Amino acid sequence: QVQLVESGGGLVQAGGSLRLSCAASGSFFRINDMGWYRQAPGKQRELVATITSGGSTNYADSVKGRFTISRDNAKNTGYLQMNSLKPEDTAVYYCNAGIFVLLTKRNDYWGQGTQVTVSS
Fold it and tell me: In 52-90, where do the E strands start and end?
């Protein structure tokens, strides 16, 4: 059974930094795209950043220049480095990955979420 386990959330002051990790475990062929999403109280889940298997990245305008998404394919782990954090970045952050469990069968997986709180 494939699982995504996130870590690295917490409480930080505005202007500070956090690094989120998302580790995939279980039996699978390979990880395709990975991404980070967030959901603030009373708001819909929104895209933060994505990274393809080849390393191409995409960011929400609100985080460009402050957040960096990366991945370590050897460790089956994705990362989100968050710098210059603002109170409006406060949310539960979710990892998402498209994973080939067989050569031609791709499933979509979500992590359990990790809370990021930025105080002003």
Answer: 57-59, 67-72, 77-82
CB 63, CB 69: distance < 8 Å? no
pLDDT, tens only, 20-48: 999 999 999 999 999 999 999 999 999 99
Burial class (CB in 10 A: 0-12, 13-18, 19+), 1: exposed
Side-chain-facing half-sphere of 111: CA atoms under 13 Å: 29
Tokens (6 digits) for 99: 């994973």
Residue 98: band (very low, low, confident or very high) from pLDDT cuts 50, 70, 90? very high
- Region label for 76, one of left (φ > 0), alpha (ψ between -120 and 50) or beta (otherwise): left
